[in-house]
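Data card: per-record layout.
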Amino acid sequence: MDERSTRHSVLATARPDHDPHADVLDHRLKSRAATVSIVSNSVLIAFKLVVGFMSGSIAIVSEALHSGSDLIAALIAFAAVRRAAQPPDARHQYGHEKVENVSGAIEALLIIGAAAVIIVEAVHKLIDGVTIDHVWLGVLVMGVSGVLNLTVSRAVLYPAARRTRSAALEADAAHLLTDVYTSFGVAGGLVAVRLTGIESIDPIAAIAVATLIVRTGYRLVVGSTRVLLDETLDAEDLEAIRAVVNDHRGTMIAGYHKLRARQAGSRRHIDLHVTVDEALSVGEAHDVAEHIAADIRDRIPNSDVLVHIEPRSHERVDGS
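The structure for this 320-residue chain is written out next.
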């Protein structure tokens, strides 16, 4: 076996079976995860509405309403990941990835809106009184709902969101996770009603879990708006970019400055200026820029990198 074949064999053996860079571009994975969320929420809405009206529990009916907002969120996420997958066009030359962040902000507002409706309805029931029947049936439905949503959120949506860096799927997963909290909270409230006979516990439990929902919604709003306002990448990504560029100091470049980086959906946009020896030809300087850009793309998956070449005399002391 010659040296080239040996090297090829070693690389093939060392290469992992799973390429995390490919996941970021796996739009079918995003669509499948969003579809699972749509189906699960549709089933739960039907169950909760039937049992809620049978039992008279405002908490269960509120849960059906919450699942309705989950379904809307899942539909929005599904539409967002499909739209974000479309290539750049004449009107959107940087692509459509920020649609996912818009989707995340809308889903967060839906979460907060659903929590507000739950609180209002619960307060009305506290004032007017409530009669609850079929308590154990309600507990069963809430338990099944919590387990199903926990499974979809933790086993389907969150893993897909992490692998593809999808803001829309992350928001959908968080949305479902709030439903887990409310489902178990409502189930606990119904058990307390059954054990104590105090039916006002049901709307009180609904108010308690609604406050948890608001916290999740706020976190999602903040996360989505940071991207929409072009906040820089996190420190880990920036350090990775600097490490790549610094590897070329003294060999290909003299230094660098004006490093800027932002995120749009799962895509990273990175640009920086590097300084090179004035004796390089235009073609040689271009090759240096392309080489550094390629190395950054290898380190930061799904990134759009622009490297601007300047003469060494333009180097800044801070290298920022």
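Known properties of this structure: Residues 235-314 form a domain with the Alpha-Beta Plaits fold (CATH 3.30.70.1350). The chain is about 70% helix and 10% strand.

See the next section for split statistics.
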